[in-house]
Design brief:
Layout lengths: L1 H132 L10 H10 L2 H10 L14 H8 L2 H9 L17 H9 L4 H8 L12
């Protein structure tokens, strides 16, 4: 019996030891799983913290970008407003200068027109005197060249006589294409110009053998400049200003 009791006791002890080892292994496995769960939880928490950190950084960056955009937009709007204001000021200055310029031009035009009228009135008086003086000539023998000569020399009483006797000769030209009007204009002979214009001479006629030279107004300007009375007189009659044509 004692041997059997010993064997039973030994078996019971072995079984208890086996259970103890199993329980220890189960406890160790539980601890291991718990530790793993803790590790995973900590990693997830760390990952979540990293995500939150990145999200906060991105939110901060987005806020800063928004602020920069708003500042840049405000600066651009301010600059555009300043530029628009400056452009409006420049436009107002241009309009003011233009209006002043137009006003000055209007005054200049009026003065020039008054000058034309005064010149025309004085010249017409002198032209009438020349026509009256022309009555002293009777049966004078003359040629077309004499008409040009009288125009060039300011012999306006003779010129008036020639025009009255031979009106068509106001268009007679020499071999170089010079008409009486060209001669009178080049000579600065205002009365001669007026006599010829009132007789119907061609204010667009040109010198030159082929009719490609200058007009009377052009020649007058070359000789005396823009401000001479003969130039003003021709302009008042709307004379053509054209210079010699050059060969193409």
């Amino acid at each position: 019996m004692k041997a059997e009791e010993k064997a039973a006791a030994a078996a019971a002890a072995a079984a208890a030891e086996a259970r103890r080892r199993e329980e220890e292994e189960a406890a160790a496995e539980a601890r291991r799983r718990a530790a793993e769960s803790i590790r995973i939880a900590e990693e997830e928490e760390a990952s979540a913290a990293e995500v939150r950190k990145r999200a906060e950084e991105e939110a901060t960056a987005a806020a800063e970008a928004k602020k920069r955009v708003e500042e840049e937009a405000a600066a651009a709007a301010k600059k555009a407003e300043e530029e628009a204001s400056e452009e409006a000021k420049r436009a107002a200055d241009r309009r003011q200068r233009q209006e002043q310029s137009e006003e000055n031009r209007s005054e200049d035009v009026i003065q020039e027109q008054n000058r034309y009228v005064a010149i025309r009135e004085n010249v017409e008086i002198e032209a009438n005197k020349a026509r009256e003086a022309a009555k002293q000539f009777e049966d004078e023998v003359f040629m077309a060249a004499d008409v040009r000569y009288a125009a060039s020399k300011g012999q306006n009483d003779l010129l008036a006589y020639y025009i009255a006797e031979r009106p068509n000769w106001i268009h007679a030209k020499d071999r170089n294409g010079w008409h009486p009007l060209h001669e009178a204009a080049r000579a600065g002979n205002l009365v001669g110009v007026e006599l010829l214009v009132s007789a119907g001479c061609d204010l667009s006629s040109r010198t030159g053998r082929n009719g490609n030279g200058g007009t009377a107004l052009w020649w007058a300007i070359q000789r005396y400049g823009e401000n001479h009375d003969v130039v003003s007189l021709l302009r008042s009659h709307n004379a053509l200003e054209a210079g010699p044509e050059t060969a193409g």
